[in-house]
UniProtKB/TrEMBL annotation:
Pathway: Carbohydrate biosynthesis; gluconeogenesis; Carbohydrate degradation; glycolysis; D-glyceraldehyde 3-phosphate from glycerone phosphate: step 1/1
List of residues binding substrate: 9-11, 178, 218, 239-240
Subcellular location: Cytoplasm
GO MF term (any one): triose-phosphate isomerase activity
Gene this protein is translated from: tpiA
UniProt name for this protein: Triosephosphate isomerase
Main location class: cytoplasm
EC number: 5.3.1.1
BP terms from Gene Ontology: gluconeogenesis; glyceraldehyde-3-phosphate biosynthetic process; glycerol catabolic process; glycolytic process
Assembly and oligomerization: Homodimer.
Active-site residues, as the UniProt record annotates them: 100 (electrophile), 172 (proton acceptor)
Organism the protein comes from: Hymenobacter ginkgonis
Lineage: Bacteria, Pseudomonadati, Bacteroidota, Cytophagia, Cytophagales
Length: 255
């Protein structure tokens, strides 16, 4: 069965001392306030240089787990400035975010490339958090469902059933990222339900039922409980609020 899940994407923020302080605060709060077998899966995704230090403070357990924000599609080679999935796994990463809208927009990553990155991540033993989502223009043109269906088909649905079982999907409406705008809980539910239907068609009903689908898009401590209460929303991929320990833990506790 799918699990409640909260991932914090720190993006390109924090120095080493700041990251150590934030991680220590989050770990202590989770320990004090969320002991129990039914606690959500928590993942922290810092920038590449901070991964070893944050991973050390997380302790290497199943939760809070360490995740990366991206990986290269090749295992190794002459790719200056890039980081492979194998390297990430070797330093303790368990998850990796792929297809974030900022990677698609600023670095021109398309679904063909992301399908290669997915394979590389899975081969290395990482669990991908695969992002899909539409722009404001796409939503206003009433093309949201067609757009997301294509992202899923071209980027994700080439995986085998066994590979797909390792994937978490994140719906992130681009118009709600870093803008302060948030999809209503009904809008989030509508798209999450659609994604689950697409999974059922591509694989089967069991796979759809078991797939964890996160909402990402200005989710914060004030609105998380309402968004997470929707039947097809299993948690969040959190940006700005993940940089504040109390806000992040409040979001984790929203279930």
């Amino acid at each position: 069965m799918r699990q409640n899940f909260v991932a914090g994407n720190w993006k390109m923020n924090l120095t080493l001392p700041e990251a150590q302080a934030l991680t220590s605060e989050i770990v202590q709060m989770l320990h004090d306030e969320l002991l129990g077998a039914d606690s959500p899966q928590v993942v922290i995704c810092p920038p590449f240089p901070l991964l070893p230090a944050v991973g050390h403070l997380l302790g290497g357990g199943p939760t809070p787990a360490l995740g990366a924000q991206n990986c290269h599609q090749k295992e190794s080679g002459a790719y200056t400035g890039e980081v492979s999935a194998k390297l990430l796994q070797s330093i303790g990463c368990q998850y990796v975010i792929l297809g974030h809208s900022e990677r698609r927009q600023y670095f021109h990553e398309d679904d063909a490339l992301l399908s290669q990155k997915l394979k590389a991540a899975l081969t290395a033993g990482l669990k991908p958090i695969f992002c899909v989502g539409e722009s404001l223009d796409t939503r206003e043109a009433e093309e949201t469902f067609d757009f997301i269906a294509k992202q899923l088909k071209d980027g994700l649905f080439h995986l085998s059933n066994e590979e797909f079982d390792q994937v978490v999907i994140a719906y992130e409406p681009i118009w709600a990222i870093g803008t302060g705008k948030t999809a209503t809980s009904q809008q989030a539910q509508e798209v999450h339900a659609f994604i689950r239907e697409q999974v059922a068609q591509a694989y089967d009903a069991q796979a759809a039922q078991n797939t964890t689908i996160l909402y990402g898009g200005s989710c914060n401590a004030q609105n998380a409980r309402e968004i997470f209460s929707q039947p097809d929303v299993d948690g969040g991929l959190i940006g700005g609020a993940a940089l504040k320990s109390r806000d992040f833990v409040t979001i984790v506790k929203s279930f």
